[in-house]
Write a structure and sequence with these properties.
By secondary structure, the protein is mostly helical. It is built from 21 helices and no strands. The protein is elongated, with a radius of gyration of 28 Å.
């Protein structure tokens, strides 16, 4: 049985009787599943299928169980077999689509959701799920089209309004997103995500007072939302409330210790508050969590440069260049440092020339100063 967003599956008991022995294993498998004996349930569904290869209920439930165990390839095989027997069973198409989505086979998922819609044109969940997959591929207009169809079928579905709002935000239609988030909130006042992303949209439009109120409402409804605390911290930073910003981002990190971007931004806030020691510690921590976060290397390199710790700063800018080869500022700063170090002038001038060719105007002045 599908949920609205098909985020999980439920084992269902098919009423058809396929023969006593197969039916016995099938029913025992359902009992074991309900008692959280997943390996036992899997074994019994397999026995049921061995006794009767056309037992669609056992194929469906084994596929469902394999999905839950993230054995997507074999789950697909079970749904394939079941669909070959009952091609008109909309649940099979829907669940195979969700499995393909989990495997990042977006084209296959869209095709299967389309078949589910063909079999059941009134399926809100099929339209919403197909829209979600379209959004993952960057097809936000297609996502909006499917969400709109879901709304036409059931205008009281708050999830449909929020999902369409998300797609509009994906197209940077923040005002349109706000209207749809507001409708979703009216239908479901406890939808934390709608407040969170309405706040984000308002933030983008520089409607800061209402954005702050929406972030706070999202936190009230979902007190452990790291993203809500993080977004509110960024807004407080814009409003120069550094103490409040650091408190919020620290809470976000407490809930999600591997949140490298949040750690890096806390370092940036500490930099603005002249806490360079704390900032370096945060940039270093962010790098330990995500070694590909160029921003953390760049910011740490900047502080080390300001402290004239050139030999320590250069490896950071070198790492930035490796991660983001088109960063003219990294070339400029590394060149600026090299040019002032004994025996490194040639390297410095090469970096400065590269930065100038990339359009960095500061590099022009540095070339005139160090490379004449």
């Amino acid at each position: 049985m599908r949920t609205t967003l098909c985020s999980f599956f439920c084992l269902i008991l098919f009423t058809n009787c396929y023969g006593q022995t197969s039916d016995f294993f099938y029913s025992r498998g359902v009992d074991k599943y309900n008692n959280h004996d997943l390996s036992g349930a899997l074994a019994d569904f397999t026995l049921a299928i061995e006794k009767d290869p056309k037992n669609v209920g056992a194929l469906y439930n084994r596929g469902t169980l394999r999905y839950e165990l993230k054995d997507y390839k074999n789950a697909i095989a079970d749904y394939d077999s079941a669909i070959a027997i009952e091609p008109g069973n909309v649940d099979l198409w829907h669940n195979r689509a969700s499995t393909k989505d989990a495997m990042n086979d977006y084209a296959g998922a869209i095709n299967d959701y389309s078949m589910a819609i063909q079999l059941d044109p009134g399926s809100v969940s099929a339209y919403l799920n197909r829209g979600l997959v379209k959004g993952k591929t960057g097809d936000f207009p297609g996502d909006i089209e499917d969400d709109t169809r879901a709304i036409e079928i059931n205008a009281a579905n708050a999830v449909a309004w929020k999902q369409r709002a998300d797609a509009k935000v994906g197209l940077t239609d923040f005002r349109g997103g706000i209207l749809d988030y507001t409708k979703a909130i009216k239908l479901d006042p406890n939808m934390a995500g709608a407040y969170l992303f309405r706040g984000y949209s308002e933030d983008k439009l520089q409607i800061y007072d209402t954005a702050l109120a929406d972030y706070t409402a999202a936190i009230r409804l979902d007190p452990k939302s790291a993203l809500a605390y993080y977004n509110r911290s960024l807004l407080k930073r814009k409003l120069k409330d550094y103490k409040g910003a650091i408190a919020d981002v620290t809470t976000a990190i407490r809930f999600e210790p591997q949140y490298a971007l949040a750690i890096c931004n806390r370092g940036a806030m500490k930099t603005e508050m002249k806490d360079t020691l704390g900032a370096i510690a945060d940039f270093t921590l962010a790098i330990s969590v995500d070694t590909t976060l160029a921003m953390a290397y760049f910011n740490r390199g900047n502080i080390l440069t300001s402290q004239r710790r050139f030999a320590e700063a250069i490896p950071d800018f070198t790492r930035v260049i490796a991660l983001t080869p088109n960063d003219d500022n990294a070339y400029y700063l590394r060149g600026f440092l090299y040019a002032q170090m004994e025996g490194m002038k040639e390297k410095g001038c090469a970096d400065l020339k590269k930065a100038m060719e990339m359009g960095n105007t500061d590099a022009v002045d540095a070339l005139l100063k160090f490379c004449q």
